[in-house]
Amino acid sequence: MANLRELTESHLSTARTDKHGRSAALVANDGPLRQTVIALREGTRLAEHNSPPAASLQVLAGRVRVDLEEESQGEFGEGELWILTHERHSVLALADSVFLLTTVTS
């Protein structure tokens, strides 16, 4: 069983020193369900990517913004859970941040 507090601390520490400003690990994998802890140093962006059939983002630490091309889907802070868009999107860390990405693939 994953301890999210420990994962948050360790991945944030790694992201802060990583040359790309990120750290991630798959923490649950059950059939179509995937949960990944992702840490981003402030200012680091996950490039635009396609969304799976269903996905949510739960911020464990910091603050992130989800962008759709030229506009923002929203900004989310610690403790907030958001259902992600089905459109191509990117994620920007507005502060050193860690989030749990839950996806359901087909």
Task: List the defining traits of the structure above.
106 residues, mainly beta, 5-stranded antiparallel sheet, 4-stranded antiparallel sheet, 1 helix, 9 strands
- Characterize the biggest β-sheet: 5 strands, antiparallel
Please identify the structural class as seen in this structure. mainly beta
Shape: globular
Estimate what percentage of residues fall within beta strands: over 45%
Question: How far from one another are the termini?
Answer: 24 Å
Describe it for me?
This protein is mainly beta. The protein has 1 helix and 9 strands. It has one helix spanning 4-17; strands at 22-30, 33-40, 45-49, 54-61, 63-68, 71-77, 81-83, 89-93, 97-104. The protein has a 5-stranded antiparallel beta sheet with strand order 1-2-9-4-7, with helices on one face. Strand 5 (63-68) and strand 6 (71-77) form a beta hairpin. The longest helix is centred in the N-terminal third of the chain and has 14 residues, at 4-17. It is globular, with a radius of gyration of 13 Å. The mean pLDDT is 93.
List the helices and strands and how they pair.
Layout: H1 4-17, E1 22-30, E2 33-40, E3 45-49, E4 54-61, E5 63-68, E6 71-77, E7 81-83, E8 89-93, E9 97-104
Antiparallel strand pairs: 1-2, 2-9, 3-8, 4-7, 4-9, 5-6, 5-8
Short description:
With 106 residues, this protein is mainly β. The chain contains 1 helix and 9 strands. The mean pLDDT is 93.
